[in-house]
Every structure is written in C-alpha cells, then in structure tokens.
Amino acid sequence: xxxxxxxxxxxxxxxxxxxxxxxxxxxxxxxxxxxxxxxxxxxxxxxxxxxxxxxxxxxxxxxxxxxxxxxxxxxxxxxxxxxxxxxxxxxxxxxxxxxxxxxxxxxxxxxxxxxxxxxxxxxxxxxxxxxx
Length: 132
What we know:
- The protein is an all-beta fold and 132 residues long.
- It contains no helices and 8 strands.
- 0% of the residues lie in helices and 73% in strands.
- It has an 8-stranded antiparallel beta barrel with strand order 1-2-3-4-5-6-7-8.
- The protein starts with a strand and ends with a strand.
C-alpha cells in the first residue's frame, strides 16, 4: 500500500550522453531541490536508460540528497518510462534509500514508489511515496 509522500523535488537535466546504439542507451544526469520528509534538500543523480524495441524505456540509476545541515541520503532504483511530446519522458518505478541520519531514518524503512517527469526543455519533477 502506498503511504505518504516522502520526497518531492524539481530540477534540471544537466548532461545527456549516448552509451550505445544497439539497443539505444543513454546516460542522464540531473540536479534538483525540494524536500525529503518535510526537510529542505538538494540532490543530484545519474541514470542509464535503454530504449526497448516497443518504444518503452527501462532505466536504473543512483543519486544522493543532502539537507542544509549536512544529513545525507543516497538512493538507487529502477523504473519504466515512455516518451512524450517534444522529447519529454515520464517514468514510474521504485527507489531504495540509505542514510546514517537518525532524523531521516524513516526514509530507509520502506521502498519508495516514484513518478519522475522530464519536460521537453529538461526540467524535472519527482514525487516519491513510501510503500508500506
């Protein structure tokens, strides 16, 4: 069952790199900011996406988020996506978090179901729900 929203961020795609052409494989890096468990944070991540023969996308990635007082959360995950107008991309998937922070330990207690959107201009928005 999906629980409360544990993270919401917005940001910008900063790098795209072609890793292969058969199948088409792309690496993407981004930076974002928002909140995790209601605490302001900034983050960055990199994911690799493979475009499947049916046009769908499978991706996996990793990243980190930090609070203003230096608390760190790392994540890794995977998801499935699809292309939208003008090169926009929409993903749905799961994230798995780790942290040594006592204040933010709740984030690592359950996987996070995510929605991740990138518009045609490279602006990103993500929302993560605890899966309990």
